[in-house]
Amino acid sequence: MKRVETNQDWSLMCPNECPGLDEVWGEEFEKLYESYEKQGRVRKVVKAQQLWYAIIESQTETGTPYMLYKDSCNRKSNQQNLGTIKCSNLCTEIVEYTSKDEVAVCNLASLALNMYVTSEHTYDFKKLAEVTKVIVRNLNKIIDINYYPVPEACLSNKRHRPIGIGVQGLADAFILMRYPFESAEAQLLNKQIFETIYYGALEASCDLAKEYGPYETYEGSPVSKGILQYDMWNVTPTDLWDWKLLKEKIAKYGIRNSLLIAPMPTASTAQILGNNESIEPYTSNIYTRRVLSGEFQIVNPHLLKDLTERGLWHEKMKNQIIACNGSVQSIPEIPDDLKQLYKTVWEISQKTVLKMAAERGAFIDQSQSLNIHIAEPNYGKLTSMHFYGWKQ
To answer: How many CA atoms lie within 13 A of 140 on its CB side?
Structure first.
């Protein structure tokens, strides 16, 4: 990224001739990489921006490759005492240590965030923390009793005990609270939800450590030194929870799990509960779902309810929304407050989406699966978006 920014060259090397690059990150990587360049161990030199253009071109056409930053993943990982984290899973929310003897395992569960909105349009953080604690206990039980197809997976899972708590229905929660996705209220709620989940998960993991002892490789980890995820981001939490008290408790007992939070895509589980996926805004307010029994038109249930209550739902309205590709912005009969509330992802600033990802990121100790939607992508837009995300 630095060399793309400064329009420098990028050297392509053979890992057999230039060993060890996968074992280091940050300044150590740069030092080793540059030493190989000076020694002339380079197979080919290309302009960094030329390589970057190939990445952007591929993303424009296919949506891939998915991108993560190795330095950030390692610098902010609670597993950094184990060694260098070299890879993620496909969806990029799981970043765990692997080695010749260990295959990383992700033990996942997701919370339906819409379920904690009360009838008075307030958010029940206390209940969210309680359910998070139940999930932590359940996932720890799974680690203990699970069937492992290979011994390397069993060894890794029982030594480090990583879990990944994710979410679904964030967009649904915002709608139920009557917060447009880009509003200041939604941005604060986004932060407080993940602060609550991280707090609840840490507290439950600490309670389990008090009962069974901390995980095997706890000593030397950032948490064992009193450094939590938000400390590594240089972020101060809101005053929703007593972090000082929790840190004192952790210093005394440790925690049972090396990793706790990992918002996954929830592509299938969100369908079961009828929620919008993960941390994503709605992509459309009306769409067709194809299943074995046929094709069905699905309408955003919140929009359907709001339009019905206001006497605005009828065949003509349905056809208008379909004609507008699931958008309600250009339909005159729909009031402005509903237009704000039911913006699709194509109508929401992707800079805000990235900003919200960074704000919740301070309470996510693995990573998060995040999609960016740009209706008319080009080299400039995608480059600007990537560099904004990188600098966050």
So the answer is: 25
